[in-house]
């Protein structure tokens, strides 16, 4: 892996996971030393993060980790709905039905993945990732895939702003099951509608968790886990 790719991947993960909080300066000298690279690959990585909106200009020429306000969340989900409903439509028209029928069956049994023994819901989120991966293949649209790739980093940041809610996770699993079933049945309209319903519920869950927070969400006010998407 090229040095710039490694640095980009590490910084992106640190931003998405809130280990690098909004407003953190990404000074070239300090970050290059911390990550063990020269400034050239670091600059390439920072340029990619800026292009994705994960870093923005700060004081002088230094980039800082971008913030995430309630207005940003609403706009993020507006874009997410436009892209993901179209992805669902395309998948319903182009997918291998057996792939999504199997995913629907797995989501039907998802309650077993939400047990206290797995508080971080690793198995559940792996199942969600499997659905995303199947959609990526089925929609067969490289341009849409590229747009979704950028969007998903911001979505992952947003998830961590809400508290874990077992009831919401169970409802999200049912919503994912309906999406997968609609795609398996080749019903593009229902697949898009089910995706929109799911996204509205996801945004409402995040906003409800932040009801008492200030509009500028510099960092989560209490420790949070990734929530249902």
TrEMBL record:
Keyword DNA-binding assigned to the entry: answer is: yes
In this chain the HTH gntR-type domain maps to 1-68
Cite a single Pfam family from the UniProt record.
GntR
**Which is an annotated GO molecular function term of this record?**
DNA-binding transcription factor activity
Give the protein's recorded name: GntR family transcriptional regulator
Organism per entry: Georgenia yuyongxinii
Cite the entry's keywords alphabetically.
Answer: DNA-binding, Transcription, Transcription regulation
Q: Does the keyword Nuclease apply?
A: no
């Amino acid at each position: 892996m090229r040095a710039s790719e490694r640095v980009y991947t590490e910084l992106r993960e640190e931003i998405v996971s809130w280990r690098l909080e909004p407003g953190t300066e990404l000074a070239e000298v300090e970050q290059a030393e911390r990550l063990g690279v020269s400034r050239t690959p670091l600059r390439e990585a920072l340029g990619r993060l800026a292009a994705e909106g994960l870093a923005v200009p700060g004081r002088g020429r230094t980039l800082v980790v971008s913030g995430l306000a309630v207005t940003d969340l609403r706009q993020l989900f507006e874009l997410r709905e436009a892209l993901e409903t179209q992805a669902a439509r395309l998948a319903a028209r182009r997918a291998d039905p057996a792939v999504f029928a199997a995913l629907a069956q797995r989501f039907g049994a998802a309650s077993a993945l939400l047990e206290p023994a797995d508080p971080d819901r690793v198995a559940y989120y792996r199942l969600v990732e499997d659905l995303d991966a199947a959609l990526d293949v089925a929609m067969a649209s490289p341009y849409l895939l590229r747009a979704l790739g950028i969007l998903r980093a911001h979505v992952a940041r947003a998830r961590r702003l809400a508290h874990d809610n077992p009831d919401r996770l169970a409802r999200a699993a049912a919503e994912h099951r309906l999406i997968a079933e609609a795609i398996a049945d080749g019903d593009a309209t229902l697949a898009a509608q089910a995706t929109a319903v799911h996204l509205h519920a996801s945004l409402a869950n995040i906003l409800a968790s932040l009801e008492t927070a200030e509009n500028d969400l510099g960092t989560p006010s209490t420790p949070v886990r990734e929530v249902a998407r």
